[in-house]
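Q: Okay, next protein. This is glucan endo-1,3-beta-D-glucosidase from Glycine soja. I've checked the sequence twice, so it should be correct. Can you predict the 3D structure?
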Amino acid sequence: MANTPSNSSILLSLFLLAIALSLAESQSFIGVNYGQVADNLPAPEDTASLLKSTTIGKVRLYGADPAIIKALANSGIGIVIGASNGDIASLAGDPNAATQWVNANVLPYYPASNITLITVGNEILTLADQGLKSQLVPAMRNVQNALGAASLGGKIKVSTVHSMAVLTQSDPPSSGLFNPALQDTLKQLLALLKDNKSPFTINPYPFFAYQSDPRPETLAFCLFQPNSGRVDSGNGKLYTNMFDAQVDAVHSALSAMGFQDVEIVVAETGWPSRGDSNELGPSVENAKAYNGNLISHLRSLVGTPLMPGKSVDTYIFALYDEDLKQGPGSERAFGMFKTDRTVSYDVGLTKSSQQTPSTSPTTPAPKTAGWCIPKAGVSDAQLQANIDYACSQGIDCGPIQPGGACFEPNTVASHAAYSMNLYYQTSGKNQWNCDFSQSATLTSQNPSYNACIYTGGST
């Protein structure tokens, strides 16, 4: 009988091919913030070309710059536009002002420009201006009504962006609670979001969490690097990174108010590549590790412990450095791209960096180191932390369990080598995936032995 593929195997092959192709296309859950507090930015058309050369699926603007919105027309890229804090009073006080705002900033461009969300104000609830807080929900409602009148109510959402300071409790994540002083406003706000299926948008920054707790283990936890993890004392769930912990704290706070079904969107998160001499954490290595590992985490679709199986839409801060921003040096150094549109550091966002097959004849690329193993002299404690981390990320650690092909020799070093390499191979084979708090290295020597086969080889 001929060995013909079954329908199920053909469907599986097509499914895997679709996944592979999708990695070279835009990914809707990965967005970027396009700030403009700078005097050296490329022309909007050039920025649009840059964005189209990446797998970035969405871009968030802090205003509604018509040149940028037009430049992104017919790109398919989702666009978030913003009404400024200064617009809130007029939007709240006069429905006609909201109609005029929509007529000016949305209708001339939609649907060619894929506007998906309007954010009304930025971090209003943690400002001292009580009047502005009281005007926020009426302003949002008027903008929502103006969209409805233009038959766009179900197509473009309305929200507002919050800092993590809206929470008074976030550790452990299951105990997350909003500031009681904001409860009345939040109830109105969340009811509006729920009624219109709009997201709750938040700005979690593990960078700031590290600055308030600058221990090496906290840095690893913030950078998605191997660490022993933190167990939530409320529900027993293990957290291996700060991003998930912060997002789940917001989910818990929403749940505590009865709005657990409101979608969470991360409006900003990022890590600076440089800063002032007295700032803890800014560096190219840390920025590359945070953003690169975050992107890998989002692409894995593993989700968070409280929201598994899907990735939260996340806008990384930022597209470019902004040289006119005030504050410490780090404020001007969050850009993943330089203003000449080359990468500041590679986190795998450019479509050309995705490993896709080529049909053109090419000179064979030189073979590079293909396996990730521990460095010599690393402590058993560090190696065990590496094992715990790698095996918590969804890889198959069965071979290093008793009876497995790689269980013998039964040493921490041997088990660490297998699990660290498998994590590296399945996480994209990026250099930062073989870091493990600087306890790992790449080798061209195949570590496989007997029936214990190490995935990998030339990349």
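A: Here is a summary of the prediction. Confidence is low (pLDDT under 50) at residues 1-25, 354-368. Residues 25-335 form a domain with the TIM Barrel fold (CATH 3.20.20.80).
Q: Noted. On to the next one.
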